[in-house]
Amino acid sequence: MSAFLEVKDLHVSFPTGDGVVRAVDGLSFRVDKGRTLAIVGESGSGKSVTAQAVLGLLNRNFADITGQVWLDGQDLIAMSDDQVRELRGEAMAMIFQDPMSSLHPFYRIGDQLMEAVRTHHKVSKQEARERAIDALKQVGIPAPERRVDDYPHQLSGGMRQRVMIAMALINSPQLLVADEPTTALDVTVQAQITELMLKLQAETGTTLIIITHDLGVVADMADEVTVMYAGRAVEMGSTDDIYYRPEMPYTLGLLASVPRLDSDLNERLDPIPGNPPSLINLPPGCVFNPRCTFKDEVPGNRCTTERPELLASSAGHLVRCHLDAAQRVAAREAST
Amino acid sequence: MAGYVIRRVLIMLLLLLLLSFTVFVLFSLLPADVARLTCGKICTPETIEANRIRLGLDKSVIEQYWIFLQGVVMGRTYGQGPGAIVCNAPCLGYSFTRQEPVLKLILERLPATLFLAMGAFVLFLIGGVALGVYSALRRGRWQDKTVMGISLVGYSLPSFFIGLVVVYFIIIRWQLLPFPSYVNPWVDPLQFVQTMILPWLVLAVLYAAFYTRLTRSQMLETLNDDYIRTARAKGLPERVVIRKHALRAGLTPIVTAAGLDFAGLLGGAIILETIFSLPGLGSLAVSAVLSPDLPILVGVTLVTASFVIVANLVVDLLYAVIDPRVRLA
Amino acid sequence: MIEATDRVEVLRVEDLRVYFPVKSRGIFPRTVGQIKAVDGVSLSVGQGETLGLVGESGCGKSTTGRAILRLINPTGGHVVINGTEVAGMSRRQLRPVRKQAQMIFQDPYNALNPRHTVGSIIGAPYKIQQIDPPGGARTAVREIMERVGLNPEHVNRYPNEFSGGQRQRIGIARAIALRPKLIICDEPVSALDVSIQAQIINLLQDLQQDFNVSYLFIAHDLAVVRQIAHRVAVMYLGHIVETAPRSVLYSEPMHPYTNALLSAVPIPDPRKQSERERILLGGDLPSPINPPSGCVFHTRCFIAQDRCRTEVPQMRTMAPGHEVACHFPITEPLKGGVIHGPDPGLTAPVPGEPGYWSETVTDLGGVGTSRLDSANSTDEGV
């Protein structure tokens, strides 16, 4: 299989009055056609900025972007804003976290869907409307021929997220980026939306990137996972690699701090100590070293002085850590 | 919707009633003797007393107000016999200094004020909103800073200052335009435009400054909203994103301010009408204060206040047009 | 686990109701309906105990918490805090009660006054209650800061100089300052990142150990509640539908809603997750302005029968401490695989039907209303 999307050495920084915010700091990843990649991280990890950089949604007047983003053989970073705009909504689409605020409150949902069609295709209003109704039907909106004339405020949160998905998929994009698609929804609605996205992906073969902090959602949906921390990928691999053979202490800490329904009832959570670093003033060496409980095991203060590389620990499993193989196994056993 | 409008109109009438009563009582509390003001120095005590009775000033304020209301609905006759003065309904009072019904005076002055307000309104709204959008899109750059700087100056300069400077340089010093002399547009369109262009521009500059700042802040706010990001994610060209999505969303406060400003202008731009000697409501009010002529003041106050009340209703109705979440019921 | 017999009740709530009037617009607004945000909620919290109150947005869980502390006035019912009936008390009478019951809010960004130093925020309860703690307020504040994991050197800093997790620690410090008997925690960790969330949960557990404080822990996240609560109450559309000790609720839930809720929470384990039994509820939460008849859950229930549409289920005790409001409680474990609730296409209400969702702004007030807030659903359901 060939990479459908390949990001190479992506850097995104925002100059501010307080200094340069390094939101994404040398990120590379690839997704094969029809697969699902989850980018996992907490706030400030750079996962959302990455998504917006791929779609060309960052304003280059305020953001410095370098690197390459290859979509189906074309480098989006090298393209003009207008060329990228023509691909957006057509070859690649995005859905966002908050369906309550992501639809324009003043326009009927039908008009918003038709606009998405007619931006990229010269079709009559009537045909665009029929496509809009079809798209609403596809995402499970009841009575779509009536709902198409509703305003967003007449729909519940779950319905609005379905509309957002319909809008993203209406031009059959090959790449769909979903930025926290279920975070703002209630848990029962979350389950509906997750299932809907899996079903649609199975039907259309769309390549999917899910940006999330929720390790449960990742377990449900992803084939591959990239864990980000402070703008860098710290571990990537198959879903099994990340959940059953994690090696980077941050991944270990993340998995140990999530409350879960299947844990021993009297087990205490094992949080990662400290707070995430400032993106203006990143710690030298490994960005995770101030919170890492294993850094003393690496000889010669390498964790605080030398930036670790993202290296393969097994086929397809990459880890950015100075710990050696035996130390990583010991760390994993200590944290579970 | 219809029920809502009917209710609002009824409330509006109630408000006007309350307002007219307040105005009436307030003016009756003034230390000036209205009867004495009806004639100049030639007044004899007899004329004054006769006018007092003719005007009904010998009655209590409540009675006077009742008679005034009757006059509005049915018309009114001042005095009796051959010297009686008939004021047809709706009678807003009678000016004895000018020997005319107040309503007739107001209607004569209305066109100048109306044309001044409409022209300036179109100019400042279009100019202000366009500059505001432009400024917002170039936030933080020199274009933005220039526009903001100029608008701050425009916002803080008093209208009499700009008015006088313009009159001095353009009319007196450089003689680019003739001395203003108002005619109605259907009489002499060229002279009308020559007279109105300066007051229009001066008003437009003064008001546009405010709308530039308001539009800019609205745009900056809506451009950060999530649905703008959605619009961009659809691949819409940036100009469509701005015009159709961002500007529409930020329109509500602009409509509110514009509606009330328009009503305010209809009340007469007192200083500018005086500077450019426009025969409008503002200059009528000024001369009524100077004479002084209380019936005219009461009339003008009532008419301008009703403009504000009507503008409020229009603004509220426009909300429902702009924002589908607003249901008027 | 505290036994029902020798347990000291710190909070008892009986038949609590909070109705919000729905007003028509205009100068003479009329009340045209009611949002029954909380409709007959009863619960109790024992000393040193944590009761988890879970439910989705709009279920009334936050309103319940606020009504208990009288941040919202309840429409009816009884609230007894540490033996004192507070329903109907005046503000002045409430003041000594406030010493015993405090609140922690979801959003540590908005709950702290940005113009006050951390020291004065944490010390404020002493001033308000006119209490002079041993060693003076300053020393007490520094001790508390240390206790909740803040550097006491930072006593003169302002809230904006702290991260989200640290701000929540400030909120906790303020709540714990007077050593209250009860703290109502309203979604205290849902705005925080996973790694910080765990720190705060552990801190709350430690403080409970040290001070024997009780928590009413309001949250939408069932996994978080499972971590901290001794007993759990599940709310749906203004009603408590099931209450049970934690170990029972999570292993043998009886109400179909609890079952659906638990099966909807993904487990961060891909293999377990793919093998799990799943219940997918159809549709969305109905609008609380026009709730369904009978059992409020019947429109989304996968085992609903005719009786559920007409008859309101009463709370029944199925086992010691395990109460369920359902005509047909689930007593046999559900089989594996995916159980679908009613198809959303069949259940989603359309305009005019009960439960139809609309956030139409019905009142603008008069002149000068500027921007409408972008409509967002809040837990108050308004």
Number of domains of chain B: 2
Rg for CA atoms of chain B: 24 Å
Strand content of chain C: 15-25%
Strand portion of chain B, in percent? under 5%
Specify the CATH architecture of the largest domain in chain B.
Orthogonal Bundle
**Any idea what the CATH superfamily of one domain in chain C is called?**
P-loop containing nucleotide triphosphate hydrolases
Element-level helix/strand string of chain C: EEEHEEHEHHHEHEHEEHHHEHEEEH
Largest sheet of chain C: 8 strands, mixed
**Termini separation of chain B (Å)?**
6 Å
Low-confidence parts of chain C lasting 5 or more residues at pLDDT below 50?
Answer: 344-382
- Strand pairing plus helix content of chain C: what structural class? alpha/beta
Give the end-to-end Cα distance of chain C, rounded to a whole number of Å.
37 Å
CATH topology of the largest domain in chain B: MetI-like fold
Q: What is the CATH homologous superfamily assignment of the largest domain in chain B?
A: MetI-like
Helix content of chain B: over 70%
Oligomerization state: heterotrimer
Q: For the largest sheet of chain C, list the strands in their spatial order.
A: 6-7-8-3-9-10-13-12
Please describe the biggest sheet of chain B, giving its number of strands, its sense, and whether it closes into a barrel: 2 strands, antiparallel
Net shape of chain B: globular
Radius of gyration of chain C: 22 Å
Number of continuous helical runs of chain C: 12
Q: Which helices and strands, and how do they pair?
A:
The complex is a heterotrimer of chains A (336), B (329) and C (382).
Chain A: E1 3-16, E2 19-32, E3 36-40, H1 47-55, E4 64-71, E5 74-75, H2 81-87, E6 92-95, H3 99-102, H4 109-120, H5 125-138, H6 144-147, H7 157-169, E7 175-179, H8 187-204, E8 207-212, H9 215-221, E9 224-229, E10 232-238, H10 239-244, H11 249-257, H12 302-305, E11 310-314, E12 317-320, H13 325-335
Parallel strand pairs in A: 3-8, 3-9, 6-7, 7-8
Antiparallel strand pairs in A: 1-2, 1-4, 4-5, 9-10, 10-12, 11-12
Helix pairs in contact in A: 4-5, 4-7, 5-7, 7-8, 11-13
Chain B: H1 2-28, H2 34-37, H3 45-54, H4 61-74, E1 76-78, E2 85-87, E3 94-95, E4 100-101, H5 102-137, H6 142-156, H7 159-173, H8 189-223, H9 226-233, H10 238-249, H11 251-266, H12 270-275, H13 281-290, H14 294-322
Antiparallel strand pairs in B: 1-2, 3-4
Chain C: E1 9-23, E2 31-46, E3 50-54, H1 61-68, E4 76-81, E5 84-85, H2 91-98, E6 101-104, H3 118-129, H4 137-147, H5 164-176, E7 182-186, H6 194-211, E8 214-219, H7 222-228, E9 231-236, E10 239-245, H8 246-251, H9 256-264, H10 270-275, E11 278-280, H11 306-310, E12 316-319, E13 322-324, E14 338-340, H12 344-347
Parallel strand pairs in C: 3-8, 3-9, 6-7, 7-8, 11-14
Antiparallel strand pairs in C: 1-2, 1-4, 4-5, 9-10, 10-13, 12-13
